[in-house]
Amino acid sequence: xxxxxxxxxxxxxxxxxxxxxxxxxxxxxxxxxxxxxxxxxxxxxxxxxxxxxxxxxxxxxxxxxxxxxxxxxxxxxxxxxxxxxxxxxxxxxxxxxxxxxxxxxxxxxxxxxxxxxxxxxxxxxxxxxxxxxxxxxxxxxxxxxxxxxxxxxxxxxxxxxxxxxxxxxxxxxxxxxxxxxxxxxxxxxxxxxxxxxxxxxxxxxxxxxxxxxxxxxxxxxxxxxxxxxxxxxxxxxxxxxxxxxxxxxxxxxxxxxxxxxxxxxxxxxxxxxxxxxxxxxxxx
Length: 284
What we know:
- A hairpin with a 7-residue loop joins strand 8 (152-154) and strand 9 (162-166).
- This protein is globular.
- The chain has 9 helices and 14 strands.
- It is an alpha/beta fold.
């Protein structure tokens, strides 16, 4: 019997046996078709250390194309899970990476400070930012004590948060103590959280968990229906919220301990393993 367009798409997807499936009907091309609904409705990836090897590393174009194919299928059939991003990077970088994966759903930028909506090209501040932290004063103090003295530099382009890199990468582990000393009493108004190669300086009310909560509210998708993939301590708040958690081999120990599945390979190679583990793929 000739397959409908939807049936042809579904036959190309392979689902892990542990994913809960339930039959629902949909009217496609004038026909009633039975389609699955899944506990995993959205895949949420960190970027640096997960989809890429980190700053200044080459993009894995084949993997990005694979994720783009998943998004195209999800647009055609919303019962299939889509892919989005949750990153510490500034909004313009998130925009470009969502373009690379043909993303149509919002993504999280600056460690939860806001959402970028591809539909309508909107950048929306997270309401959880309550203004208790004077980030201008924080930036000024860090610039005076760390940047102008040649110890560290800021990642450019951020509007709500700050990220510090050590001028000498071997001294990255000292950024926390340097920043705490430089900020003095202001250090009580921020969160200092490491990523693999840098220190994130976050205002009160901001972390990736808050970003995922806002994303969930905006989409109407509960965190329990999300698969999250992260690698560093700054990812822990969002991984703690989602229903399914995974990590590449290069992940921090605390992330591996939280994850349901840890890949044997790092970064994008590990993401391939994660997709294969949950059988979330399209086959031509």
